[in-house]
Amino acid sequence: MSLTSVSSRSRSSHIMLETIQRNGGQVTIDIDVLSETGRKSSLSQQTYFELRRRIILGRYPQGSRLAEQRLAEELEVSRVPLREAVPQLEMDGFVQTFPRRGAVVTSWDEKRVNDLFDLRLCIEVGAARYAARQVAAGASMKPLTDALSHSQNVVHSGDLFEVAQASTWYHEAVVDLAGNRLMKTMMRSVTGQMLWLFYLTSRLDADDAFDDHVNLRDAIASGNERVAEAVAYTHIERDRIPSFSALEVPYTSAPAPDDSDGVEH
């Protein structure tokens, strides 16, 4: 995939000046002044998402070193967007950087899997409770219903990345419905890792996961906070030990207590 082709299309459609209506008047914006910064930011983001996708799909295996020059050649970008994308990848848990070695793809082990599940319990169980409270107070279920419909559309598509994305979006929708900004911020910090783990464990029964999502939707729709949090807890915890089997990672410790190509090897 060439990222420069996307950037080139943006340049070809570039408009020097744009006039928009605002509050009954006209505001003229010099798009040319803003475009260069926007292009750089856009290319860095495209680079980030493409690198993240390749890591998730295993194109760049866990423990492998990301060689900057080869990545630049593969993606047909300069080293600047790569160097801007790597810190975000590190912040989101996809790579770790080392002096003189550069960026290395992180690996999944028992502690990392448990840490993610434990954090999800902390965020999502409470989010389900608050989402039920919001619905009981009149909040719309549409965003959650739309996310569930999308999951249903892709569950048998054969595209495991799409299935993993749909599952991630559904869990994000639950947190969004809770209406707690701090929860949303915390959730955004781990959705990339959730997407990665969902993809890696795609051998688990997608139908069972979808049924769990339906049950959680129904529990939230009922407005019963305790039922919603119990269903959320059961859904998340049910996948913990099977995830270790799917990843072929040894599982030795007890679950959390219930207390409510450009690569070098």
Write up this protein.
- The chain folds into 2 domains: 4-105, Winged helix-like DNA-binding domain superfamily/Winged helix DNA-binding domain (Arc Repressor Mutant, subunit A), CATH 1.10.10.10; 110-260, Four Helix Bundle (Hemerythrin (Met), subunit A).
- The protein has 12 helices and 6 strands.
- It has helices spanning 4-12, 31-57, 68-75, 79-91, 110-136, 142-154, 160-178, 181-188, 191-200, 206-222, 225-238, 240-247, and strands at 17-22, 25-30, 65-66, 95-98, 102-105, 263-264.
- The strands form 2 sheets. The protein has a 4-stranded antiparallel sheet. Strands 1-2 form a two-stranded antiparallel ribbon.
Record field, number of beta strands? 6
Query: The biggest beta sheet, please?
Result: 4 strands, antiparallel
| pLDDT averaged residue by residue | 83
Can you name the CATH architecture of the largest domain?
Up-down Bundle
Helix content: 55-70%
User: Between the first and last Cα atoms, what is the distance in angstroms?
Assistant: 22 Å
Number of helix segments?
12
List the helices and strands and how they pair.
Layout lengths: L3 H9 L4 E6 L2 E6 H27 L7 E2 L1 H8 L3 H13 L3 E4 L3 E4 L4 H27 L5 H13 L5 H19 L2 H8 L2 H10 L5 H17 L2 H14 L1 H8 L15 E2 L1
Antiparallel strand pairs: 1-2, 3-5, 3-6, 4-5
Helix pairs in contact: 2-4, 2-9, 5-7, 5-10, 5-11, 6-7, 6-10, 7-8, 7-9, 10-11
Report a brief summary of the structure.
The chain has helices spanning 4-12, 31-57, 68-75, 79-91, 110-136, 142-154, 160-178, 181-188, 191-200, 206-222, 225-238, 240-247; strands spanning 17-22, 25-30, 65-66, 95-98, 102-105, 263-264. With 265 residues, the chain is an alpha+beta fold.
